[in-house]
Backbone:
């Protein structure tokens, strides 16, 4: 169809009016596609927009959606775009009779699958320019080969020239919004880590006071009693077998209690034998006095992957697992606690689950032991999830961390949190 200058301007103004009220590029593009259809009938239309100074691109589609749509969330290099020659300015435009066998769209590594999947045969590709720079390309396609003429190409060039400033403004606004959200997320994360670190420090201080009280009220009291018994024996000038046996038991009890306190403060099993054995030792010790008895299972399919992590990270993972086990024994009333350690080439996963009464609603559990678990996980860049282990109840604590987590130590140090793994 041939248009007069007035008719063409009227159609282009209709396209501009379609932009009104839209702030999302994808929604705006779908709105103008309806108007473009009156000028250039098509089965598929998309706009590719270049980002990062021409290094990457995103795509917005109408008609049948293809894998190109995923570029809106995950930009890919311009180098693999089948229309890279237009995006780079190497070609002023492309009009293809049959894109399926047009070599301009196909090269090693080209993201050309949708051309075949959606049967995009007749194609017009024209650049979008704003401020003298190519900001993207308008791509119009039909299933039937040879559908477009030179007159259609001229119409597409007029459309591209008219809509490019609007597309540019929308993309700039979208980029500004994303940058603002990213900055806000970074500030929120830093604040959460700061508050979490402060709470964890307070918790550590309370734990130190508890240890001091345990030493004063129990261990020191036991040792004082032993001293008094030794003094009495010394004054009497003799000691019977029964009295010596009592003394021996008292000393053994003191040593046992001291070992527990020292092990809690400095997990020597972790240093000597690794994460798996340290968790198993703590698990066994935790359930040893439970009534009724609690069965335990531990399965390590990680081939020692955890022990390749930095010491600070390893200790933090142990502390999280330790707290999860303690919570299960003290509050969960489980019949069985299971620990699984798994690893993929990129991720280490530790899961502590039980069949107890469950953890309830954790939406407000931001303080105490559970809060400390979340803080420790955040400080080392791990992902911590706590929920039900099954529909019947129970609790499942899962910790995931990238095996390449050297940056996590940097984050902890930047926060000045040197004591992360010390308690």
Residues:
């Amino acid at each position: 169809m041939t248009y007069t200058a007035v008719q063409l301007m009227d159609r282009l103004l209709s396209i501009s009016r379609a932009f009104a009220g839209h702030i999302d590029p994808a929604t705006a593009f779908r709105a103008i596609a309806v108007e473009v259809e009156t000028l250039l009938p098509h089965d598929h239309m998309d706009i590719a927009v270049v980002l990062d100074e021409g290094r990457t691109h995103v795509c917005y589609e109408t008609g049948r959606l293809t894998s190109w749509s995923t570029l809106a969330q995950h930009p890919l290099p311009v180098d693999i775009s089948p229309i890279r020659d237009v995006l780079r300015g190497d070609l002023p435009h492309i009009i293809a009779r049959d894109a399926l066998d047009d070599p301009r769209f196909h090269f090693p590594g080209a993201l050309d699958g949708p051309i075949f999947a959606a049967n995009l045969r007749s194609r017009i590709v024209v650049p979008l320019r704003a401020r003298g720079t190519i900001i993207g390309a308008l791509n119009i396609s039909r299933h039937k080969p040879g559908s477009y003429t030179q007159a259609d190409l001229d119409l597409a060039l007029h459309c591209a020239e008219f809509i490019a400033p609007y597309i540019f403004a929308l993309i700039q606004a979208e980029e500004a919004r994303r940058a603002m959200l990213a900055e806000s997320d970074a500030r929120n994360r830093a604040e959460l880590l700061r508050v979490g670190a402060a709470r964890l420090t307070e918790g550590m201080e309370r734990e130190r006071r508890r240890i001091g009280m345990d030493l004063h009220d129990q261990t020191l009291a036991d040792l004082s009693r032993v001293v008094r018994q030794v003094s009495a024996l010394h004054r009497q000038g003799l000691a019977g077998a029964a009295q010596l046996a009592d003394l021996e038991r008292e000393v053994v009890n003191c040593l046992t209690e001291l070992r527990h306190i020292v092990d809690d403060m400095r997990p020597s099993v972790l240093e000597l034998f690794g994460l798996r054995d340290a968790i198993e030792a703590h698990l066994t010790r935790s359930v040893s006095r439970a009534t009724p008895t609690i069965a335990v299972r531990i399965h390590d399919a990680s081939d020692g992957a955890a022990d390749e992590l930095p010491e600070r990270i390893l200790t933090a993972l142990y502390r999280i697992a330790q707290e999860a086990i303690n919570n299960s024994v003290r509050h969960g009333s489980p019949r069985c606690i299971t620990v699984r350690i798994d690893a993929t080439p990129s991720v280490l996963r530790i899961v502590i689950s039980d069949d107890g009464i469950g953890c309830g609603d954790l939406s407000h559990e931001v303080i105490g032991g559970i809060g400390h678990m979340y803080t420790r996980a955040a400080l080392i860049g791990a992902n911590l999830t706590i929920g039900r282990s099954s529909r019947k109840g129970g609790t499942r604590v899962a910790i995931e961390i990238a095996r390449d987590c050297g940056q996590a130590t940097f984050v902890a140090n930047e926060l000045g949190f040197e004591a992360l793994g010390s308690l």
